Amino acid sequence: MSAEYILETQDLTKEFKGFVAVNKVNLRVRRGHIHALIGPNGAGKTTCFNLLTKFIRPTSGRILFNGQDITGESPAHIARRGVIRSFQISAVFPHLTVLENVRVALQRKLGTSFHFWRPERSLHTLDGRARELLHAVDLGEYAGHLAVELSYGRKRALEIATTLAMEPELMLLDEPTQGMGLEDVDRVRQLIKQVSADRTILMVEHNMSVVSSIADTITVLQRGATLAEGPYAEVSRNPAVVEAYMGSADAELVGAH
């Protein structure tokens, strides 16, 4: 595996009782790039994410991260390597403050994640870094607000801040703009571009205006297999891709600029 690629899959396959959800996918994610995984509903995108983070085990094939075979490793080991994932549903603690949410993620570095008997003041050493991360995602002024009070888009921004707190080398973002209005979509789009400056991002995303504006490389899945790969300008003109998207809500693929 070339040092140019941070993540590579080799014939990655997942079968569920005879149904092939992911079929011999060969994915190569270039270091420092934003790579989007797209495809019609049921194409196997989320299953592919679940395989990469070991929430499910592949039927066959290999997963390499930084040149090392991680196929047999647990989700916890994958996370410790620096592969950190966000989910389609915002996963923040609603009744903690915005600052406290980030601080919980930072606790891992102190080795006190499960030391519930320690006084809260022992965590204040993390406040400076937590505030830095909040400013990085434009949430600095919301530090004292309860997470439940945030708009949906800002909750996703908070989730990205907590993901950044884990110091990911590779961020996997699952539908980061799902269910958002235009203003929130634009905020999260800019945020993803901003945080990609010194890390690699692999994202599943339906919004083609987001994909076309920030993704360096796009992999199109259909029925669990790779249909096409390349930059947006090339993929969006691929006849097989256009045909795969026609008649679906995703038909905005062409001309999404």
From TrEMBL:
PANTHER family: ABC TRANSPORTER ATP-BINDING PROTEIN, CONSERVED COMPONENT OF ABC TRANSPORTER FOR NATURAL AMINO ACIDS-RELATED. Residues 7-248 form the ABC transporter domain. InterPro entries: AAA+_ATPase, ABC_AA/LPS_Transport, ABC_transporter-like_ATP-bd, BCA_ABC_TP_C, P-loop_NTPase. PROSITE patterns: ABC_TRANSPORTER_2 (PS50893). It comes from the Bacteria. Keywords: ATP-binding, Cell membrane, Membrane, Nucleotide-binding, Transport. It holds the Pfam family BCA_ABC_TP_C. GO terms for cellular component: plasma membrane. This is Amino acid/amide ABC transporter ATP-binding protein 1 (HAAT family).
